[in-house]
Design brief:
- The chain is mostly helical.
- It has one domain (about 5-304): Orthogonal Bundle (Farnesyl Diphosphate Synthase).
- About 75% of the residues lie in helices and about 0% in strands.
- It is built from 13 helices and 2 strands; from the N terminus they run αααααββαααααααα.
- It has helices spanning about 5-10, 15-30, 40-45, 50-65, 70-100, 110-135, 140-160, 170-200, 200-225, 235-240, 245-255, 265-275, 280-304, and strands at about 105, 105-110.
- Helix 9 runs antiparallel to helix 13 (about 280-304).
- It is globular, with a radius of gyration of 20 Å.
- The chain starts with a helix and ends with a helix.
Amino acid sequence: MFSNIIQSVISRKDLVRHELELVDEAMKNLLCANFLHNRQILSLMMNGKRMRSILFLNLTKRFHDSSMEHSDMFEKQVWTIALIESLHLASLIHDDIIDDNPSRRGVDSCQKILGRKFSVLFSDYIFAHTSKKFLRIHRGNQFIQNIFLKECSSTALGAVLEQGLTLESSIKECLRVASLKTSSFFKLSCFMGSYLSTNNFQLSLKAATFGTCFGIIYQIQNDLDCYKFKDSSESEDYIQQNITLPVLILNNSLRFNAFNVRETPQIHYEKIQEKLSSREFKVVLESLIGKYIEIIDAFLESML
């Protein structure tokens, strides 16, 4: 439903391909110095879409000229987004541990490869190591440091609140979880990409608002994609009965029990798919996220 918006960001990847290579190199230097012997970790780390990097780098590219490429500021920008991407990776490893996911990004997950114990320790190492380096890179700038720590805290809070969602939770609560857990690093990436290039708080605040809205839409699309598989056994959200926005809309607005155990899983799953593709579902969803779409469209048109 929102794949066109996401694709509009992905399409900007070619504009910053060289910079993305530098970000990947920085991540390798940061995370693999002590783990380079394990190529499976490297494969997991380098297999993402780099959505946050694409947004960050397109914003920095808009506001600085090519002569900055070998400057200290450019190096700081590359390291800043590499650190944010590394923190995002750590959060994914945590998610896979909590959900007992065997795969991530089309390859075996870290916990599948190396076990839960190592994965917990490795993700904790990433959080600690990257946070320390971020604060060192931006030492002397307490404003930037505070924003970074706030969004890291927000991501963790969102993960905690997500565990408390039930079928009785409100749609507002679910959107808040998305705005914290998923949007925080999008928000941080967009704010930093703008602020490090312009030092303009108001402009960067608009970028941060876009990042929040984009993160929410990104999460909703991810939730919908979990119900696009032909076989119910392939849908992780369905099997684990995860509380997501589509599920709450079905349950609260359309009065359809998304976790009906009286029917065979495949039949019930296909009914969910039918409901999710119905006009009544789309009307409810669009009424909830229309304001986010407006902000995203306006920002993409004027800023990126």
